[in-house]
Description:
- This protein is of the alpha+beta class.
- The protein has 7 helices and 16 strands.
- The strands form 3 sheets. Strands 7, 8, 9, 10, 11, 12, 13, 14, 15 and 16 form a 10-stranded mixed beta sheet that branches. It has a 3-stranded antiparallel beta sheet with strand order 1-2-3, with no helix packed on it. A 3-stranded antiparallel beta sheet has the order 4-5-6, with no helix packed on it.
Amino acid sequence: MPSTLKCTNCGGDLKFSPHLQQWQCEWCDKIHTKEDLKDQLAQSEDNQAEPQSGTVDGSTVTYKCSYCGAEVITAVETIQTFCVYCQRPVTIQTQASGEFKPSSVLPFRNTKDDAIAQFKNFLKGKRFLPNSYCADKNIEKLCGVYIPFWLFDGMMHFDFSGEGDIISVYREGDFEVMRTDTYRLVRKGSIGVENIPVDASLKTPSDIMDSIEPFSFGDLAPFSPLYLSGFLAERFDVSQDDSFGRAEQRMTGSVDKKINHSLFRYARVRRHRDEKHTQNISAKYSLLPVWMLHSIFEEKDYLFAMNGQTGKMLGNLPMDKGKMLRFGLLVFLLSGIGSSLVALLLRYMEIL
């Protein structure tokens, strides 16, 4: 079920340009606005309400590419993928409609070339990486993926009380005096929190997704399939209810930072009361941009992720044990040679 948008000038395929924040033809470079593609999008949605051909088998779905006729096998959660033969995009419309239709999308800001350049720079100086991992052939597999997130809004009420000590040291004649002033501390109120992100995909490690934040939610746009052109996308497989616990934990952490910041002047703090609770919690389903590289080395999975807006990156990198062993032997040999030279020099000095 292809979702390729066509250039109004030459009929070539269009892709969303993160730099331009518009749609550019791959053939003639003509720029298209969202308004230019409104009629084309409406027609596409009418034609693609249901897949022409598709079968569900456990956790996978099989579709037939209408461009080249090849079978496209993808996970049930996939919204958009590519045909491995003709590289045309294939959108699974049913995975982005009804309860699975996102309310918003955060468009990519950096291109694949940007991501590759930053990734290569990130790898510099890491001498124990496998050669196969650093090879251009592997790095080219870096792909832009819209990851499903729940964005939580609400109120966090807090009631904190305790005691804080301010310690000062000064001299009185020959004596050094330490003075401790104790103050009663009260922090009570409410803080509105919005757009607390919780990733909603079982495939992406939450710690990595948390680490590439923050995202700039001022750029959130109402969801449109137009933004998916040129990228992969997945729908959520973790429900809003199942994500609430993590969202509440993150909200609590935000409030704790605010309270702790107001207590920085106290050398010691004794907490007598520290209560927090949420109210009026709501969530919206959104797709956020992430550049990802999944690699397998010595039968272990390694995932690298980069924020599609800011370029902030994190991931687990493979280590070549052979390189580590050779380096260790080299250090050992050099240290042994160095010790022998020192011993010879000392013996020579004794003879003199």
